[in-house]
Specification:
Elements lengths: L2 E7 L5 E7 L3 H10 L3 E7 L5 H6 L5 H16 L4 H11 L3 H15 L4 H8 L6 H13 L2 H58 L5 H35 L2 H13 L3 H22 L4 H11 L3 H15 L4 H8 L4 H13 L2 H53 L5
Antiparallel strand pairs: 1-2, 1-3
């Protein structure tokens, strides 16, 4: 969506400058007029390139975290909401964030609460969890505490996601380098030797013949392999694009050895941290459970959370609903039950999240510690086969009578 820069005046004659995302200039003018501003100049934003042109339709999690941390700090310093937003408008790291903060500032100055401004104008960068927590903080008169808690939640979630990505980056790098090396040998090195062997007319050893057949196949039918991979990916996307296919795929992922329990622990940690943070911020349990289901990436677990929410709505306990599903880890169920019995459910949920995040970190190190030698051994065997096949062919050349 285009971004426009504008200058407008309020009823006291004071002018403001800002940017706003809108379909056209007329929409910007109408929006300013609704917020009791008189447009002086509206023009398309001239800036191009960089992060905004390639990813301007979304706000990164890092920008969202920085916005929340800064707003919480300004609130804790005693600044009013509109003053805090005006400062954040000046500190915006890119035009997209600046447009959002400016829009929020106009809404707040027009009489809307922060949660109303977040929910009405920007449903994409600000999730239902974010909006509900801000609304609960406003109703309880502890918005600054809620914003700080929300910033801590976003920071913990980002740190957990970064830890997972960092852990799997090295094995992926190993596989990519190994595949690249094999493809290079098959497409550039082996064909040169194949020409030499063909000119000699000497019968090649069986490993060398297999290697030459594979190399010729890769050279002559690489496009078929690419089409096959793209077709498989397209079929997978279409299948998982349906609710039934996505549930079946997610259930399959949970049933895999080694990685299945790991996925379950990751989702359990996400579920516990989100629910615990919302309950601690004053969000009602039913509203919190409705939001938590949207944050679960595994659809099979998301549906289980919805069924747990239905059970709680009918008068059951959270621990009983989790146990009835038969998917959640036993330790998490017992800890939740203790939290319900002692009246400290939100604290126990956060403890569950911390426990399973540490467990996931240790489990990832263990699984990847086993996986990395397997990858290295597999790539070593493959490269060794290529080298041995070529050496056998070279040795057989020496047996040609002169």
């Amino acid at each position: 969506m285009p971004v426009f820069v504008y200058r407008a005046a309020d009823r006291r004659g004071q002018t403001i400058d800002g940017v706003m995302e809108a379909p056209d200039a007329r929409a910007v003018i109408e929006r300013l007029q609704r917020d009791a501003y008189f447009p002086i100049r509206v023009a398309p934003h001239a800036e191009r390139g960089g992060w905004f042109s390639f990813g301007g339709s979304r706000v990164s999690q890092r920008d969202l975290l920085a916005f929340t941390q800064q707003l919480a700090t300004l609130f804790e310093a005693g600044l009013p909401l509109d003053r805090g937003l005006s400062i954040l408008e000046e500190l915006a790291p890119n035009p997209r964030v600046k447009a959002i903060v400016t829009d929020l500032l106009l809404s707040v100055r027009g009489g809307a609460s922060l949660s109303e401004a977040l929910g009405k104008h920007h449903p994409r960068p600000f999730s239902r969890l974010y909006i509900n927590m801000v609304r609960a903080g406003e109703r309880g008169g502890v918005l600054e505490v809620t914003l700080r808690r929300l910033a801590e939640f976003l920071e913990a979630r980002s740190a957990f996601a970064d830890a997972v990505r960092t852990a799997v980056a090295y094995p992926i790098f190993l596989v990519a380098v190994g595949i690249g090396a094999v493809v290079f040998l098959m497409t550039f090195v082996i064909p040169r030797f194949a020409t030499i062997f063909a000119d000699l007319g000497q019968a090649m050893p069986l490993p060398t013949q297999i290697l030459l057949w594979v190399s010729a196949g890769v050279q002559g039918y690489w496009w078929a392999g690419v089409l096959l991979i793209l077709g498989a990916l397209l079929g997978w996307r279409v299948w998982t694009g349906t609710p039934q296919g996505r549930v079946r795929w997610d259930q399959t992922m949970l049933g895999l050895p080694l990685v299945g329990p790991l996925f379950m622990k990751i989702e359990t940690a996400r579920f516990a941290r989100t629910l615990g943070t919302m309950l601690k911020s004053g969000v009602p349990v039913m509203g919190a459970l409705a939001v938590v289901g949207d944050t679960i990436t595994n659809l099979a677990i998301g549906q289980a959370v919805e069924r747990v929410a239905d059970g709680v709505k009918r008068g059951g306990t959270l621990a009983a609903g989790m146990q009835a599903e038969g998917q959640f880890p036993t330790l998490a169920i017992h800890m939740v039950r203790v939290g319900e019995e002692t009246g400290r459910l939100e604290e126990m949920l956060l403890k569950v999240a911390e426990t399973f995040e540490v467990d996931v970190d240790n489990e990832l190190k263990r699984v990847l510690g086993l996986l990395q030698p397997v990858i290295i051994l597999g790539m070593g065997v493959l490269v060794a086969f290529i080298v041995v096949a070529m050496m056998l062919a070279i040795f057989s050349i020496n047996e040609i009578p002169l």
